[in-house]
Design goal:
- By secondary structure, the chain is α/β, with parallel strands linked by helices.
- It has one domain: BirA Bifunctional Protein, domain 2, CATH 3.30.930.
- The chain is 36% helix and 23% strand.
- It has 8 helices and 11 strands.
- The protein has helices spanning 3-6, 27-42, 71-80, 117-131, 186-199, 221-224, 231-245, 256-277; strands at residues 12-18, 48-53, 58-61, 84-87, 95-97, 101-109, 139-141, 155-157, 160-170, 173-181, 248-252.
- Strands 7-8-9-10-6-2-1-11 form an 8-stranded mixed sheet. Strands 4-3-5 form a 3-stranded mixed sheet.
- The chain is globular.
- The model has no long low-confidence stretch (mean pLDDT 94).
- It is an enzyme of class 2 (transferase).
Amino acid sequence: MDIENTLLKQEAWRFIDNTTINPAFDAIQSFATDDTLCRSVGARMVPSTVRGWVHDKTVSLGIQDSKLPDIDKGIAFLQEQGYRVVVRNSGGLAVVLDAGVLNLSMVLPDAERGIAIERGYETMFTLIKDMFVDCKEVIEAKEIVNSYCPGSYDLSIQGLKFAGISQRRMAKGVAVQIYLAIEGNQAERSTLIRDFYTISGKDKQTKYTFPDVKPEVMGTLSDLIKEDITVNGCLVRLFNSLRHYAGRLESGTLTSDELDLFPAYYERLIARNDKVLS
């Protein structure tokens, strides 16, 4: 068994479905949910969990984005375009969330000696490759320069990025998060982030590095594999892959204990967002 696959082979996987767009459940609640899952999965109160989530017209900023010289102008621009702006607590830079972007969070208990960061990335990469094993195109993991939120585990086909991976580690839990641009207008998303960085004054400072976003280096999975793929279709692929790796596959919602834990993490994220965005 490949080392990348060992973390996928769990006695049980639990799936939580937050892919139906609900204005009452925003991205801040999603990130608080993942913190809650890190705590409960890390304490082995519940099985390892995969959560699917979708939010409409939201830009998720990284902590580093808050250091932009004119961040207030950038946020105002995004809001004028009809986007909600949130600051997440995992790694990376600004990304666009909308109805055509599927986010997956894979939450695992940290091993006794710790799960290496690269191993977390490789595990998610393995899952995505398995979900699209019938794809004739080769999916690669490497940094795509001039994409938004560039990183060493950008997923691409023929040099065009369709996904990015980040991680969140806390309370003996590891959350590996990926956004998958399934369908929609990726050029429009890229242009939005490019303009956000220009308006936010990314070239006025030298302490941090922000990408020169070029829409031509990004695409959607539907376009890249030349197949009409939907978020729901990807969930079917996800279930089939998890069934292969899991002794059993459960579907559910947060437990009562997790619901008790959630408010504290949510309030913490609200406070962080208020501090950055006010």
